[in-house]
Structure formats: structure tokens, C-alpha cells
Amino acid sequence: MEKPLSELHRPWLEHYDAGVPQHLDYPAIPLYRLLDDSAAQQPAHTCTIFFGKRMSYGAVKEASDRLAASLQGLGVQPGDRVALLLPNSPQFIIAYYAILKAGAVVVALNPLYTAHELLFHLNDSGATTAITIPLFLEKVSALVGQTPLQRVIYTRVADYLPFPLSLGSRLQERKQMRQVDPGRVIHLASLLHAPPPAGWQPAPVDPHSLAVLIYSGGTTGVAKGIMLSHYALTANAYQLRAWVNLDAEGRILAVLPLFHGFGMSVTMNGPLLVGGEIIALPRFQAENVLKAIEEWKPTFFIGVPAMFGAFNSVPTLKKYTLRSVKGIFVGAAPLTQALKSEFEGLSGARLIEGYGLTEAVTAIMANPYLGQHKVGSIGLPFPDVEVKIVALDGSADLPPGESGEIVLRSPTLMLGYYNQPQATAEALRDGWLYTGDVGQMDAEGYFTITDRKKELIIVGGFNVFPREVDEVLALHPKVQEAAAVGIPDERLGERVRACVVLREGETATAEELIAFCRERLVGYKVPAEVEFRTSLPKNMIGKVLRRELRESQ
Fold first, then answer.
1. Given this model, what pLDDT does residue 452 score?
2. How far is CA 217 from CA 419, 457, 488, 502, 506, in A?
């Protein structure tokens, strides 16, 4: 019989920072209330900073209301899927909350996905509407008729940039629009002209219903749509606020992609809950991020280890003033002590290493903001997050110091995997999420990851499932079979290596196969190197032994 919460061994509670509660009350509200409530409390306060141009909470709320009403006018119904393919920008936040206010579901997609990848994600999600920018408009609009897409909306980045940056961007976006039939697409700006009808209100939403669909990665059956409820996303924002005592004075640098669970929750939903400021950067370029820190003085920065490796490679790193940053959340991959020490010395901030997974929204544990940090540890579970270590065969709970699978339960757990009942049943058992990660807990309740039960490759914080790379390589006419593995990379944490067996009599170069993958996969999934082999190691039932491939390098 399952132990009740009160009987579980929770040594981590004794090591919480002063003021961090063991338990929180989570309101059962639609997620869009995070924005609307903050706008009601401080409408004139800055919500977003985008290359120096500010938008207030009142302006962002009004824009989201107008877009929500316009989406409904276009035929978007409660429960409909709306795909967001946008970089970090004010438009992402406006569109995200507008979709929720319309009663629809956000399908958060990487705008850099190739047409091959988008075809799967749009068909699987059933998205009927997509919102993107001119750079990706030709690619997205071409999928109307091949997917459930009925309408494509575009927004110009230039519309939210300050002058003179807006001028150059507008000219570039005009060139991009020449490749698209204007009669097939809708300009988002036109949907913001008119206010909502008199008496309009956001759609009534069950807080426990689906709010956001985020894909774990992949192009075929490997990809899983992770279903996150309004309640789970709201609860995670409350946990984050409690862990670092985040308030309206907090200024968050948002360079992690907002379509990613980590960026979405920690750099968007969390700050919006408290009325904080979000400094949005569309992409990571090490020196541009350093300049943004110096100019806009964020108090919190959210990153992955690969970013700090990139900072250290900037020759002029030490000239930048980074002392405004008080705390830096780091996750998605192991952080080396060398990277941690070097950047803490330069910034004066504390690098707070943590752990999370999209199946639980994102971060579910971290080292204390003020208290003891343990080298190599992912920290302590957040309030109301219960964690235990179980034997890999599931036969028993394990004591401190022994390695097994990390299993957790939390108010932030996913509803399940979209249209994948078997995968859902394997991951969610009796209210517990089986993470697939192997780790251990010490006597004080600090956790450490020792291995991955899954064969996931993490490149710069992004998940790559080996099978999706395998399947793309298998499409090449010269390839007999292939297996992708992750190998250590000092800058990215891991990189993809493809082990390839060619068809008899065929010859190929690594460059040829990499170029083939680049046409069909987003950049971080593309193999950095190719190893040609005469055969792949397999077990008795023919399954490729990836561990042997990794260990043979």
C-alpha cells in the first residue's frame, strides 16, 4: 500500500531557506489570471523590455484581450489548438495569454523546426491556427492543406522594436513577405485594432483542463505531446516565487526559449505572477547577452551550462559589469564546478543548480537560494514536491545513498501524453511520475543525478531523442542502418554522434550525411560528427546497444 505523504521521509525540509514554506496554497484559476491580476494591481508597471522598448502590464493585458476576442471572431473555439512559432518577444507573451483567454490550447513549437518536423507536430497536435513571424511564414503557410491548419497569422518583430531598430527590421521582413501570398495569411496587427465587444470576458476555463501542449522532441512516434493544465502551470509559478522570494522588483532576463518548459515557466509565468519585468532576447549570442545584463541590469538570469561556457569564450568578458544579477537558475544539464566558480566570481551572483522536466512543468527542485549548495547536487525538492528513489525494477523504495530511479509527485504533474495512453501509463503510476532519470538522495535530502535511464541526448539544454536522428539517417539511400548517441562536449554538455553502416557497395562522406540531416532536423539535433562502421552492436533481440557505442569512443 502506498505511503501517505505524511509518512514519507523528507529530510530536505530541514534545509529550506528561512521563509520558504513547506506547503503552499495554490489557487484553482485559469493561467491567464497571472497576467490579468498583475495588470489590475499595477497597470503602469513595466511588463516587457524588448531591445529597450517597454510595454506596461496594462498594455500587454489589453493586447491579449483584443487578440483573444479576434481569435474567437475568426472561429477559434474552446479546446482548439493554436500553434505558437515565435521567438522571445512581447508578441509571444501577448499571443500565449490571448490563446488561453479564447479558451484554446497553446501548442508551443520551436520556430526553427524544419518543414519535415512541423508536418508531424501540426498533424499530431491538430493545430488549426498558427502564429509566427515573416521569417518562418513561407514554411508554415505551405503546410496548410497538409495539416489541420486553417489559418496562419503573422506578426512583424519590427512592430515591437524601438526606432531605428524597427526600420531595418521592417525592410528585412518586407523582403521575407514577398515569398508569401498575402491573401493566405492574416496580419496580427490588424487583429489588435478594435477593442473586444462590449461586455466581453475571457472564456470560462476549468483550471484542471489542458492549457499548453509541449512536445518532448522527435519526428514520428518518439515525440510525445506533454499536456499541462492551467493548475499545474500556475502551481509551478507559485513554487518558483516562494523559492527565491521573487517580487515585483525582480527583473528577469529571458533568453531561454519561451516555447521550452524551462523558459516558459521560469522566465515568463513566474515573473508575471509577481508583476516583475521580463527582458526578452530572441536568441542567445553570448556577447549580446552580456551587453543586455550590463545595460538593463536584470536581477535574475535563467540559463543552461552551455551558455556559461560560451560566456567564458568571450575575450572581453571581464569588461562587462554583471553585478546587478543576484541569482542565476541553471538546469537542463550538469554544471561543472569550474563554470560555476568562474561566473559567480565575475557576477557576484549565486548559480542555483536545479532539476526539472516538462512532465512536471519544469523545475521541481533546486539548491537553496541562500543556503548550502552542494557541488554536483541538483538540490532540494520544492514545497509540495515529494521525491523518492526506487529500484530500477520498481520493486522497492531505496534508502539514502543508494542509486535508483527518481520518482516524484507534485501539484505540477502533467495530465499525460497526448494520444499516447500506454506511454502515459508507464510514466504516471498511482499518482507518481517515473522520470527515467537515475540518482540518489543523501542523508540531508539533497539529490544527485548519476545517470539517465532513458537514452536522451541533451545538447545545450535541448532534448534530442536518438531514434529521431536514426530515422532521418535511414531515409538516406546510402544508409543501411544508423544509431545516434550523445558524447561529452565541453561547451554544449553533449553533442550528437551518428554511427552509420552504409549499404553494400556505397560510399559517402560525413559532410554529405550531416547536410542531409540539416535539411530535415533543427540545428541542435544534427549530428556533429559521423562514424562509419561495418556493423552496430546489438543484443539477442536485435536492439542496438547504444551504451556500447558510447563506451567505445
1. 65
2. 15, 11, 20, 26, 31
Exposure on the CB side of residue 291, measured as CA atoms within 13 A: 9
pLDDT computed for residue 302 by the predictor: 87
pLDDT at 435: 93
Is the C-alpha dihedral spanning 391, 396, 402, 405 positive or negative?
Answer: positive
User: How many H helices and E strands in the chain?
Assistant: 16, 27
Q: With a cut of 50, which residues of the chain have pLDDT below it?
A: 1-6, 218-221, 540-541
Residues of the chain with CATH 3.30.300.30: 457-551
Q: Can you tell me which residue has the cell 484542471?
A: 208
Report pLDDT digits (tens) over 311-353.
877 889 889 888 898 888 887 766 667 777 877 888 888 888 8
The CATH architecture assigned to 457-551 reads: 2-Layer Sandwich (3.30)
Question: Quick one: pLDDT at residue 375?
Answer: 80
DSSP string, 135-187: HHHHHHHTTBTTBS--EEEE--GGGGSPTTHHHHHHHHHHHHHTTS-GGGEEE
- Residue 510's Cβ-side half-sphere holds a number of Cα atoms within 13 Å equal to 12
pLDDT, residue 495, reads 93
Query: Quick one: pLDDT at residue 553?
Result: 66
In angstroms, the CA 189 to CA 239 distance is 35
Q: Which CATH architecture has domain 34-217+229-283?
A: 3-Layer(aba) Sandwich (3.40)
Q: What DSSP line would sit under 337-378, residue for residue?
A: HHHHHHHHHHH-PEEEEEEE-GGGSSEEEE--SSS---TT--
CB atoms within 10 A of CB 88: 25
Q: Give residues with Cβ within 8 angstroms of 119, minimum separation 6.
A: 143, 146, 147
DSSP letters, 492-534, are: TEEEEEEEEEEPTT----HHHHHHHHHTTS-GGGS-SEEEE-S
In this prediction the pTM is 0.86
d(CA 398, CA 513): 45
Task: Give the pLDDT of residue 4.
Answer: 47
Instruction: Render pLDDT for 466-483 as a digit per residue (tens, 0 to 9).
Output: 888 988 998 999 998 899
pLDDT at 168: 81
For 434, the enclosing helix (H) or strand (E) is strand 432-441
* Furthest C-alpha separation in the chain: 72
Cα 229 from Cα 211, distance rounded (Å): 5
Question: What grid cell was written down for 192?
Answer: 489588435
List every span in the chain annotated with CATH 3.40.50.980.
34-217+229-283
Q: Is the omega angle on the peptide bond into residue 4 within 30 degrees of 0, that is, cis?
A: no
193: helix, coil or strand?
coil
